[in-house]
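Run folding on both entries below.
>entry_1
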Amino acid sequence: EVQFVESGGGLVQEGGSLRLSCTVTGFMFPDYGIGWFRQAPRKEREGVSCIRSSDGSTGYGDFVKGRFTISSDGAKRTVYLQMNSLKPEDTAVYYCAVVRYVTPTQFLNMGHLGFDYDYWGQGTQVTVTS
Protein backbone atom coordinates (compact mmCIF):
# COMPACT_ATOMS: atom_id res chain seq x y z
CA GLU A 1 0.00 0.00 0.00
CA VAL A 2 1.36 3.39 -1.01
CA GLN A 3 1.27 5.91 1.81
CA PHE A 4 1.96 9.64 1.85
CA VAL A 5 2.82 11.79 4.83
CA GLU A 6 2.56 15.42 3.84
CA SER A 7 3.06 18.48 5.99
CA GLY A 8 4.02 22.12 5.92
CA GLY A 9 1.09 23.95 4.43
CA GLY A 10 -0.56 26.90 6.12
CA LEU A 11 -1.43 30.56 6.04
CA VAL A 12 1.24 33.12 5.25
CA GLN A 13 1.40 36.74 4.18
CA GLU A 14 2.59 37.79 0.74
CA GLY A 15 6.36 37.64 0.59
CA GLY A 16 6.55 34.97 3.27
CA SER A 17 7.88 31.43 3.15
CA LEU A 18 6.68 27.90 3.73
CA ARG A 19 8.38 24.52 3.55
CA LEU A 20 6.44 21.50 2.42
CA SER A 21 7.59 17.97 3.10
CA CYS A 22 6.40 14.64 1.79
CA THR A 23 7.42 11.09 2.58
CA VAL A 24 6.16 8.30 0.35
CA THR A 25 6.38 4.60 1.13
CA GLY A 26 5.08 1.39 -0.36
CA PHE A 27 5.88 1.77 -4.05
CA MET A 28 8.51 -0.04 -6.10
CA PHE A 29 9.37 1.97 -9.23
CA PRO A 30 13.01 1.63 -10.32
CA ASP A 31 12.87 5.14 -11.78
CA TYR A 32 10.34 7.84 -10.98
CA GLY A 33 9.63 11.49 -10.59
CA ILE A 34 8.46 12.75 -7.23
CA GLY A 35 7.24 16.23 -6.52
CA TRP A 36 4.21 18.48 -6.27
CA PHE A 37 1.35 19.67 -8.35
CA ARG A 38 -1.21 22.18 -7.16
CA GLN A 39 -4.82 22.95 -7.82
CA ALA A 40 -6.72 26.11 -7.05
CA PRO A 41 -10.53 26.37 -7.21
CA ARG A 42 -11.81 26.37 -10.80
CA LYS A 43 -8.32 25.90 -12.21
CA GLU A 44 -6.61 22.90 -13.74
CA ARG A 45 -3.84 20.98 -12.06
CA GLU A 46 -0.48 22.69 -12.38
CA GLY A 47 2.92 21.08 -12.00
CA VAL A 48 5.00 22.85 -9.35
CA SER A 49 8.25 20.95 -9.04
CA CYS A 50 9.75 17.50 -9.48
CA ILE A 51 12.94 15.60 -8.79
CA ARG A 52 13.89 12.45 -10.65
CA SER A 53 15.09 9.46 -8.67
CA SER A 54 17.61 8.15 -11.18
CA ASP A 55 19.74 11.25 -11.66
CA GLY A 56 18.48 13.91 -9.25
CA SER A 57 17.46 16.23 -12.06
CA THR A 58 14.90 18.81 -11.08
CA GLY A 59 12.29 20.95 -12.74
CA TYR A 60 9.97 23.79 -11.86
CA GLY A 61 6.84 25.32 -13.27
CA ASP A 62 7.39 28.52 -15.22
CA PHE A 63 5.55 30.51 -12.58
CA VAL A 64 8.12 29.56 -9.91
CA LYS A 65 10.78 31.91 -11.33
CA GLY A 66 13.46 30.98 -8.82
CA ARG A 67 11.27 31.27 -5.73
CA PHE A 68 11.00 27.56 -4.86
CA THR A 69 13.64 24.90 -4.26
CA ILE A 70 13.03 21.15 -4.22
CA SER A 71 15.33 18.79 -2.37
CA SER A 72 15.24 15.22 -1.15
CA ASP A 73 16.88 12.65 1.04
CA GLY A 74 19.33 10.27 -0.56
CA ALA A 75 16.70 7.63 -1.27
CA LYS A 76 14.34 10.13 -2.96
CA ARG A 77 11.48 8.93 -0.77
CA THR A 78 11.25 12.17 1.20
CA VAL A 79 11.10 15.44 -0.65
CA TYR A 80 10.99 19.02 0.50
CA LEU A 81 9.79 22.15 -1.22
CA GLN A 82 11.08 25.43 0.14
CA MET A 83 8.77 28.17 -1.07
CA ASN A 84 9.94 31.76 -0.71
CA SER A 85 8.50 35.09 -1.86
CA LEU A 86 5.02 33.62 -1.88
CA LYS A 87 2.28 35.44 -3.75
CA PRO A 88 -1.51 35.33 -3.38
CA GLU A 89 -1.69 33.50 -6.72
CA ASP A 90 0.25 30.64 -5.12
CA THR A 91 -2.82 29.88 -3.02
CA ALA A 92 -3.90 26.30 -3.77
CA VAL A 93 -3.94 22.77 -2.45
CA TYR A 94 -0.51 21.28 -3.00
CA TYR A 95 -0.39 17.55 -3.69
CA CYS A 96 2.69 15.37 -3.44
CA ALA A 97 2.79 12.85 -6.29
CA VAL A 98 4.86 10.03 -7.75
CA VAL A 99 4.99 9.04 -11.41
CA ARG A 100 7.02 6.20 -12.88
CA TYR A 101 9.59 6.76 -15.61
CA VAL A 102 9.12 10.49 -16.14
CA THR A 103 11.48 13.37 -16.52
CA PRO A 104 10.79 16.48 -14.46
CA THR A 105 9.49 18.24 -17.59
CA GLN A 106 7.03 15.45 -18.27
CA PHE A 107 5.87 15.50 -14.66
CA LEU A 108 5.27 19.25 -14.80
CA ASN A 109 3.15 18.95 -17.95
CA MET A 110 0.92 16.12 -16.77
CA GLY A 111 -1.78 18.30 -15.28
CA HIS A 112 -1.98 20.46 -18.39
CA LEU A 113 -2.22 17.38 -20.59
CA GLY A 114 -4.85 15.72 -18.42
CA PHE A 115 -2.75 12.71 -17.44
CA ASP A 116 -3.16 11.09 -14.05
CA TYR A 117 -0.28 10.74 -11.65
CA ASP A 118 0.43 7.20 -10.49
CA TYR A 119 0.02 8.07 -6.81
CA TRP A 120 -0.72 11.26 -4.96
CA GLY A 121 -1.36 12.29 -1.39
CA GLN A 122 -4.26 13.99 0.31
CA GLY A 123 -2.83 17.45 -0.27
CA THR A 124 -1.99 20.36 1.96
CA GLN A 125 -3.54 23.81 1.78
CA VAL A 126 -1.31 26.81 1.12
CA THR A 127 -2.97 30.20 1.54
CA VAL A 128 -1.14 33.44 0.83
CA THR A 129 -2.80 36.69 1.88
CA SER A 130 -2.07 40.12 0.44
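>entry_2
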Amino acid sequence: QVQLVESGGRLVQAGDSLRLSCAASGRTFSSNAMAWFRQAPGKEREFVAAINWSGGTTYYVDSVKGRFTISRDNAKNTVYLQMNSLKPEDTAVYYCAGDSLDWRASGSALYTRRNGYNYWGQGTQVTVSP
Protein backbone atom coordinates (compact mmCIF):
# COMPACT_ATOMS: atom_id res chain seq x y z
CA GLN A 1 0.00 0.00 0.00
CA VAL A 2 1.40 3.34 -1.08
CA GLN A 3 1.44 6.01 1.60
CA LEU A 4 2.54 9.64 1.69
CA VAL A 5 2.89 10.96 5.21
CA GLU A 6 3.37 14.66 5.82
CA SER A 7 4.89 16.12 8.96
CA GLY A 8 6.23 19.40 10.29
CA GLY A 9 3.13 21.55 10.35
CA ARG A 10 2.40 23.63 13.45
CA LEU A 11 1.42 27.06 14.74
CA VAL A 12 4.00 29.75 14.05
CA GLN A 13 4.17 33.54 13.94
CA ALA A 14 4.39 35.68 10.82
CA GLY A 15 7.97 35.85 9.62
CA ASP A 16 8.90 32.44 11.01
CA SER A 17 10.15 29.45 9.04
CA LEU A 18 8.97 25.84 8.83
CA ARG A 19 10.11 22.76 6.98
CA LEU A 20 7.52 20.23 5.93
CA SER A 21 8.48 16.66 5.11
CA CYS A 22 6.66 14.04 3.06
CA ALA A 23 7.84 10.47 3.55
CA ALA A 24 6.71 7.94 0.96
CA SER A 25 6.36 4.23 1.49
CA GLY A 26 5.02 1.29 -0.48
CA ARG A 27 6.84 2.28 -3.68
CA THR A 28 9.73 4.42 -4.74
CA PHE A 29 9.10 7.86 -6.21
CA SER A 30 12.64 8.45 -7.43
CA SER A 31 11.44 8.57 -11.05
CA ASN A 32 8.32 10.59 -10.38
CA ALA A 33 7.17 14.16 -10.05
CA MET A 34 6.19 15.25 -6.55
CA ALA A 35 4.34 18.32 -5.34
CA TRP A 36 2.84 20.25 -2.48
CA PHE A 37 -0.68 21.64 -2.52
CA ARG A 38 -2.57 23.49 0.18
CA GLN A 39 -6.16 24.12 1.15
CA ALA A 40 -7.33 26.98 3.32
CA PRO A 41 -10.73 26.89 5.04
CA GLY A 42 -13.52 27.52 2.55
CA LYS A 43 -11.17 27.50 -0.43
CA GLU A 44 -10.20 25.11 -3.17
CA ARG A 45 -7.03 23.07 -2.90
CA GLU A 46 -4.31 25.00 -4.71
CA PHE A 47 -0.92 24.22 -6.14
CA VAL A 48 2.09 25.42 -4.13
CA ALA A 49 5.25 23.79 -5.49
CA ALA A 50 6.41 20.84 -7.59
CA ILE A 51 9.67 19.12 -8.40
CA ASN A 52 10.70 16.81 -11.20
CA TRP A 53 12.13 13.34 -10.62
CA SER A 54 15.75 14.44 -10.39
CA GLY A 55 15.17 17.62 -8.42
CA GLY A 56 16.65 19.65 -11.22
CA THR A 57 13.45 21.49 -12.11
CA THR A 58 11.04 23.15 -9.73
CA TYR A 59 7.77 25.05 -10.04
CA TYR A 60 6.08 27.49 -7.68
CA VAL A 61 2.89 29.44 -7.43
CA ASP A 62 3.67 33.15 -7.65
CA SER A 63 2.60 33.87 -4.08
CA VAL A 64 5.40 31.72 -2.61
CA LYS A 65 8.24 32.39 -5.05
CA GLY A 66 11.33 33.55 -3.22
CA ARG A 67 9.98 32.31 0.13
CA PHE A 68 9.38 28.57 -0.31
CA THR A 69 11.78 25.92 -1.62
CA ILE A 70 10.85 22.38 -2.63
CA SER A 71 13.51 19.69 -2.58
CA ARG A 72 13.79 15.92 -2.53
CA ASP A 73 16.03 13.16 -1.27
CA ASN A 74 15.43 10.15 -3.48
CA ALA A 75 17.58 7.94 -1.29
CA LYS A 76 15.13 8.62 1.55
CA ASN A 77 12.04 8.66 -0.69
CA THR A 78 11.19 12.00 0.88
CA VAL A 79 10.18 15.44 -0.36
CA TYR A 80 10.55 18.66 1.60
CA LEU A 81 9.03 22.12 1.57
CA GLN A 82 11.11 24.80 3.25
CA MET A 83 8.88 27.77 4.04
CA ASN A 84 10.45 31.07 5.04
CA SER A 85 8.96 34.48 5.82
CA LEU A 86 5.60 32.89 6.51
CA LYS A 87 2.49 35.04 6.26
CA PRO A 88 -0.98 34.60 7.76
CA GLU A 89 -2.30 33.91 4.25
CA ASP A 90 -0.10 30.80 4.14
CA THR A 91 -2.36 29.23 6.76
CA ALA A 92 -3.75 26.00 5.32
CA VAL A 93 -3.57 22.24 5.36
CA TYR A 94 -0.59 21.26 3.23
CA TYR A 95 -0.80 18.10 1.16
CA CYS A 96 1.96 16.10 -0.47
CA ALA A 97 1.24 14.53 -3.86
CA GLY A 98 3.02 12.06 -6.12
CA ASP A 99 2.67 10.99 -9.71
CA SER A 100 2.45 7.32 -10.67
CA LEU A 101 4.02 7.73 -14.12
CA ASP A 102 7.77 7.86 -14.56
CA TRP A 103 9.87 10.52 -16.22
CA ARG A 104 7.37 13.34 -16.65
CA ALA A 105 8.84 15.85 -19.09
CA SER A 106 9.95 19.22 -17.81
CA GLY A 107 7.54 21.95 -18.78
CA SER A 108 4.48 19.74 -18.59
CA ALA A 109 1.37 21.59 -17.41
CA LEU A 110 0.56 18.62 -15.21
CA TYR A 111 3.12 19.71 -12.64
CA THR A 112 0.78 22.41 -11.35
CA ARG A 113 -2.53 20.55 -11.66
CA ARG A 114 -4.27 18.34 -9.13
CA ASN A 115 -5.03 15.78 -11.82
CA GLY A 116 -1.30 15.44 -12.43
CA TYR A 117 -0.95 13.37 -9.27
CA ASN A 118 -2.35 9.98 -8.27
CA TYR A 119 -1.15 9.70 -4.69
CA TRP A 120 -2.02 12.07 -1.86
CA GLY A 121 -1.14 12.36 1.79
CA GLN A 122 -3.54 13.19 4.60
CA GLY A 123 -2.17 16.68 5.10
CA THR A 124 -0.45 18.65 7.83
CA GLN A 125 -1.83 21.86 9.33
CA VAL A 126 0.19 25.05 9.09
CA THR A 127 -1.15 28.02 11.00
CA VAL A 128 0.54 31.42 10.82
CA SER A 129 -0.53 33.98 13.38
CA PRO A 130 -0.18 37.73 12.66
